[in-house]
């Protein structure tokens, strides 16, 4: 996948930050123009009576000159100055600190780091606020993953993917806050929490997790395809994320002992979702989040629940029941394993069988007898005698088990 040159990438980030309202501040330095008194140029967003503006201050040796410009005019002007009047730039946004530097040989370089703690763009007026995204299109790695252009907008054919990633980020954020309340951050100081993205694919959500969670968490993508693992590790390194974001090649093995505080699996096909859930439960993960797909396992053996016999000959109805029965049984098994579950729609724009987000927050001791009875009754209603997650957990669907394994 071609990667655009540093200046172009930096200007894309800058334009997106200025126009999307995620700019915190910008400094252009190393002046290279004709005015020997010019030291640097400082830019920050301001809210004036006429709306959002970018305030630009040219700092000379003995004076300052300030102009307030509409965001898109400011972005145009700044683009013209970088590489001509100024050779270095530091851009701070809601999601990153981006350093553009020109070495003595004239070679430009771009480095992206997480934003320093406590740095936020100022609040804007209700009319000027762009659509709020937990993960703005200007987030730098989205470009390298082929989702966005240098201006932070989706590439052709990737608008759906961007909105899916942003929707996932928006759904995930409150779950993470509940599982790891910010007020407990001090207690966790020094401890690194482990996050696994099972079946991480091209890493869209793995990068999202690493960005949302920040320092204090170590995110690992487990993925069967080594070429995707190599690509994702390269992108993570390019964005200075390697210390807390790693991709590992191999197949999921729920029997292997893993350290895991958060387990995510998005669109891990068929029983790979069960493998992922079992891995997280065995590891005692506090938060489990899965978006299942291709629920094939139960379909051939599913029996019509009472009253549904007359419609059971319709394949589509049987298929929908198989999806429902699989995911409903998973939530009941999670409840039995001690997790409080939630079910949400993953993306409102796409009504496909892949749009369910199941989450579980570890809250109770596992093995509640009432929960076990609910699992068994549900399984009996559909004639389900065995299922992948139940097998992993040692739950005999035809009898009440003692406690999860
Ligand atoms: C449909 S893709 C989803 C990728 C990613 N989670 C996303 O939503 O963008 C499923 C990925 O899971 C991987 N996968 C499926 N079964 C797996 C297994 N048992 N172990 C490891 N990876 C697996 C596949 O190679 C594929 O990249």
Task: Write a short abstract of this structure.
This protein has helices spanning 6-20, 71-81, 140-144, 159-179, 185-188, 204-213, 226-238, 272-283, 315-336, 369-381, 388-393, and strands at 23-31, 38-48, 51-60, 64-69, 86-93, 97-102, 108-113, 193-198, 217-223, 245-249, 262-269, 287-293, 339-345, 356-362.
Describe the structure.
- The protein contains 11 helices and 14 strands.
- Strands 4-3-2-1-5-6-7 form a 7-stranded antiparallel sheet, with helices on one face.
- It is an alpha/beta fold and 405 residues long.
- It has helices at residues 6-20, 71-81, 140-144, 159-179, 185-188, 204-213, 226-238, 272-283, 315-336, 369-381, 388-393; strands at 23-31, 38-48, 51-60, 64-69, 86-93, 97-102, 108-113, 193-198, 217-223, 245-249, 262-269, 287-293, 339-345, 356-362.
- It folds into 2 domains: 6-132, no CATH class; 143-393, Vaccinia Virus protein VP39 (Rossmann fold, 3-Layer(aba) Sandwich).
- Residues 120-130 have low confidence and may be disordered.
- S-adenosylmethionine binds next to helix 6, strand 9, strand 11 and helix 8.
Integer count of domains = 2
CATH topology of the largest domain: Rossmann fold
Count every beta strand, where a strand is a DSSP E run of 2 or more residues: 14
Radius of gyration: 25 Å
Which sheet architecture does the biggest sheet show?
Answer: 7 strands, antiparallel
Termini separation (Å)?
A: 44 Å
Kindly estimate the percentage of residues that lie in beta strands according to DSSP.
25-35%
CATH superfamily of the largest domain: Vaccinia Virus protein VP39
